[in-house]
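Example for tutorial group B:
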């Protein structure tokens, strides 16, 4: 096999399978349908049957993709986590992790820059914030993805000959600090009706990271 053929084969292996891509596409349709219904009539008043109908499928088909309405809501944050990991994986290997994490935040900032997507995400956040169960599920998913991002950061550092010691807390601390800055920037922007991206930049600029 030639080098070109080997590269193409590796790329093919790295891409999600057709079944996985189809599943994600259907999940995205269900999420969008649910978010619009939540905005129009509220979470409690929205049934699984209504979500399925709005997405053009049966109740039975809904349960092929989500185990419950709660699972669908939390699925939004799992998809975000996947996008964050994908964004970090696409950054230059020699780039400082703090810089890379700012670019990872662009995934979410792009949502806030889109008026329709921003409204739907805000509606989903409101649903989560009034439910202790959903809030716990959201926090658990965010904590898990931060662990995955830190693990990926370790792999990337090792790949360029600068591995972190196994007991070095730096990768997890840097990832966690970036998330904290995003949250601080978001609430600052909400309070002042200013740009979320600018507020996140300000929050991240006050922290000096040695890594």
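The residue assignment follows.
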């Amino acid at each position: 096999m030639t080098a070109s053929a080997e590269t193409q084969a590796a790329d093919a292996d790295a891409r999600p399978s057709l079944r996985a891509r189809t599943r994600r596409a259907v999940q995205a349709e269900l999420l969008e349908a649910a978010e619009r219904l939540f905005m129009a009539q509220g979470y409690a008043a929205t049934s699984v049957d209504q979500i399925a109908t709005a997405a053009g499928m049966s109740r039975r088909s809904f349960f092929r993709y989500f185990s419950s309405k709660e699972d669908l809501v939390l699925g939004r944050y799992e998809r975000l986590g996947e996008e964050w990991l994908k964004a970090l994986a696409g950054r230059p290997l020699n780039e400082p992790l703090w810089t890379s994490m700012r670019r990872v935040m662009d995934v979410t900032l792009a949502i806030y820059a889109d008026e329709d997507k921003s409204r739907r995400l805000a509606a989903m956040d409101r649903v989560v914030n009034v439910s202790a169960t959903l809030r716990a599920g959201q926090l658990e998913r965010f904590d898990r993805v931060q662990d995955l991002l830190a693990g990926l950061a370790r792999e990337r550092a090792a790949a360029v000959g600068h591995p972190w010691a196994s007991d070095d807390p730096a990768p997890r601390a840097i990832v966690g600090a970036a998330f904290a800055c995003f949250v601080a920037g978001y609430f600052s922007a909400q309070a002042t009706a200013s740009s979320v991206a600018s507020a996140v930049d300000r929050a991240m600029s006050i922290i000096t990271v040695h890594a």
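The chain has two domains: 1-66, 68-211. Compare this with the pattern of hydrophobic and polar residues in the output above.
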